[in-house]
Design goal:
It contains 4 helices and no strands. By secondary structure, it is mainly alpha-helical. The protein is rod-shaped and about 55 Å long.
């Protein structure tokens, strides 16, 4: 059994995890940028901004946390692993 099969189906490439981490951090940044805007507006706009801020913060935190966990545990495909496997089979 190869290393990729031992790790299971949820073993993304390292660059994929890095892009997800960057996207998660950006979503959290956007949530913090919406905070000052909440005090300026009122009514329906305020509710929409609060909802967007909560969604951005929640999704960004989950995405960044999951990516950091996978990177720290080493649960990703290292660059060049797929090419080595293809060379062994042929």
């Amino acid at each position: 059994m190869s290393k990729n099969q031992e790790r299971g189906p949820s073993c993304p490439a390292q660059i994929t995890l890095m892009m997800r981490l960057a996207g998660g951090v950006y979503l959290v940044y956007l949530a913090y940028q919406l905070m000052p805007e909440i005090t300026v507006s009122a009514g329906g706009r305020n509710l929409i901004r609060l909802l967007c801020m909560a969604i951005f913060f929640t999704v960004g935190t989950l995405l960044a946390g999951w990516s950091i966990k996978k990177l720290l545990k080493g649960e990703f495909i290292h660059p060049g692993e797929n090419e080595e496997e293809g060379a062994r089979k042929s």
